[in-house]
């Protein structure tokens, strides 16, 4: 009698301890699941972030460090190569983002016609995305190398200003209109913009196409019954519905454009001279070309801040998503 | 009612107009899209064309589009000189009776760089998939303190420029090499690749887990599953498409990555394919056909992978971008 009562009130000792272990495990399970990722991210992403803040205050010479405060920042941001680079980056971003957006939007509108071959077209258009930056840069470089590139005779025609025409890789920029801004840019900048846009168009087209396909057919049909023509139903229905995606695409392009270095590396190497030395390439050059790690770290801190601000703004916008867009 | 009876002519014309527009539009759009496709493919086709030319034809001034001219004529189909010399110089096949198939590839690209890249890409992507699966499950299913902050931090990481990390990682690599005699560059590089691929993958995988109904796991808990069992037996199979896309995207990412492999590897034997490409640039001879052939050969595997797994790529990219 007593024995059975005991069994009922508390289960076997083994079972008891097992339940405790299970609750401990399930209480801390998310931690164990996240641990491997967090460890890797700590080494590869968080540690470098903090280390570069530290490094940006050091004078790093041949392995020895000396605290120098904000001297690195002073030197970098005071230099003319930095201010030129900022302007070049802005020019690059403007051309790159505009060209990519316009082309992608147009192509996405074509593809959205639901032609029988739409899938095939999208696949062909998408191949540049699969190539690496370096290969894409080399591919374009092969076309315009002086004398031997297939397109170089075309650009060497008098059509392009001077009697000898231009060579996209070596012609220096025309003399700047004002002292402060390196404008107009060198021909190489247009090449860089063009090649980068070629690489980015597939992805942006896909994004916009995905958004276009979510526009409800019924709404478009009822609009056309009410007498809306193609242009006005695009203007008042389709376009407002894809604006959020256009914003996302714009942020994507801006971030990629600021940070991408592979294309510059293989296509122009910042040249001719410093005509295509955008910020990411300047960072590379400071760090690994001139081994000025302190200054490179200072520049990278600035670039990280710009990136984080952009991402936070993008997040804000996409969060207001759920409550409806306000534009 | 009244309008239909008073203006039949107008209606008739508009009907005819629409019939015309419907018939004509697909033709126009097909035409325009073919042009767009040609335009996107042209740089690649041009590279293929360069890669099958002979050295002398590549070095012509002015350059020759098709190597088909003769002494007397500009174009003669019978005189076309397409060769595989460029590919041959990249692969460099030599007969060797001791090797597996009776020959061996002596070109560094195929004997060393591509196997290296394959090793890095496969192992990094497997780790990324495993870790992202676990982390994505935790972020999707458990509500713990700091979850939102952690999600935000992981998202914010994606915005830190790669080069920033590499300045620190480069120095870390140098320090590790000095401190440990048995230091393995390969393992460090793989860890770096995992770290670069993780944030985006966690994001995609979490989005996939979010679409799997919780009721399935709750039912399995009632049947006596532990959360770990539920993850591996119930949820993981359902999330397979998401995990596959994380694997494929990170594979392509590592395969195409240049700058980390370039900066973190010091030994020739450990170089990646993208870095190895530069072997063909520093040469004194102008071997553009060799460079073009190398580009084509390195790009081919990922292009083929993409062609086979198209829908997986498309879905993952749209999800990742629009939810992130």
Can you count the helices of chain B? 15
Strand order of the largest sheet of chain A: 1-2
CATH class of the largest domain in chain A: Mainly Alpha
Strand content of chain A: under 5%
Morphology call of chain B: globular
**Could you tell me the radius of gyration of chain A in angstroms?**
28 Å
Mean pLDDT of chain B: 83
Q: Quick one: biggest sheet of chain B? A: 2 strands, antiparallel
Low-confidence runs of chain A (pLDDT<50, min 5 residues)? 1-18, 321-327
How many helical stretches of chain A? 13
Structural class of chain A: mainly alpha
**How many DSSP E strands of chain B?**
2
CATH architecture of the largest domain in chain A: Orthogonal Bundle
General shape of chain A: globular
Overall helicity of chain A: over 70%
CATH superfamily of the largest domain in chain A: MetI-like
CATH class bucket of the largest domain in chain B: Mainly Alpha
From the N-terminal CA to the C-terminal CA of chain A, the straight-line distance is: 77 Å
Give keywords.
heterodimer; A: 327 residues; mainly alpha; MetI-like fold; 2 domains; 13 helices; 2 strands; globular; disordered N terminus; B: 324 residues; two-stranded antiparallel ribbon; 15 helices
Write the layout of secondary structure elements.
The complex is a heterodimer of chains A (327) and B (324).
Chain A (H helix, E strand, L loop, with lengths): L1 H8 L3 H43 L2 E4 L2 E4 L3 H8 L1 H32 L6 H13 L2 H12 L7 H4 L31 H26 L4 H9 L4 H30 L2 H6 L11 H11 L3 H27 L8
Antiparallel strand pairs in A: 1-2
Helix pairs in contact in A: 2-13, 3-13, 4-8, 4-10, 5-8, 6-8, 8-10, 9-10, 10-13, 12-13
Chain B lengths: L1 H5 L1 H44 L3 H4 L26 H7 L1 E3 L7 E3 L2 H34 L5 H11 L4 H18 L5 H26 L4 H8 L4 H12 L1 H17 L2 H6 L8 H4 L11 H21 L1 H14 L1
Helix pairs in contact in B: 2-14, 4-14, 5-8, 5-11, 7-8, 8-11, 8-15, 9-10, 11-15
